[in-house]
Amino acid sequence: MNDIIVVFNVAAWEYNDDQKINNLITRSLNQNPYIQFFYNTNNHSKIISNGEKMYIGSANATDHTKNNLEAGVIIDDEDCNKKS
After folding, report:
1. What are phi and psi for residue 6, nearest 5 degrees?
2. Are 54 and 48 in contact (CB under 8 A)?
3. N or C end of the chain: smaller count of CB under 10 Å?
4. Residues in Cβ contact with 81 at an 8 Å cutoff, skipping those fewer than 6 apart
5. Model pLDDT for residues 34-76, shown as the tens digit of each residue
6. Integer CA distances (angstroms), 39 to 21, 25, 30, 34, 78, in order
7. Which DSSP letter does residue 3 get?
8. Is 41 in contact with 9 (CB distance < 8 Å)?
9. What DSSP string runs through 7-68?
10. What's the pTM?
């Protein structure tokens, strides 16, 4: 199994945050039922980890931002990615 952890926030666009969050989680879990989501309204960065590598950055996964230039880092240091 490939457990993935995602920490995210959702910006308000066309409809309420609850519907956007539900749609995002439903679509993602249909692809991989082992994703763990953590929603944080105070966090703008996106944090994604599969236990071996971790992405921390500002990139958004929406059509509204597909042409934006974003920044992020990928950490693949084994000691940094160990689960406590």
Report:
1. -130, 125
2. yes
3. C
4. 49, 51, 52, 53, 54, 75
5. 889 888 778 778 888 888 888 898 877 666 667 777 788 999 8
6. 9, 10, 18, 16, 25
7. -
8. yes
9. EE-----SS-HHHHHHHHHHHHHHH-TTEEEEE-TT--SEEEE-SS-EEEE----SGGGTT-
10. 0.66
- Asked if 13 and 48 touch (Cβ cutoff 8 Å), the reply is no
CA atoms within 13 A on the CB side of 55: 14
Predicted confidence at residue 30, as pLDDT, reads 92
Buried b / exposed e over 26-35, threshold 16 CB at 10 Å, is eeeeeeeeeb
Contact predicate 36/3, CB 8 Å: yes
Could you tell me which residues are beta bridge partners of residue 74?
A: 55
Bridge partners (DSSP) of residue 47 are 7, 56
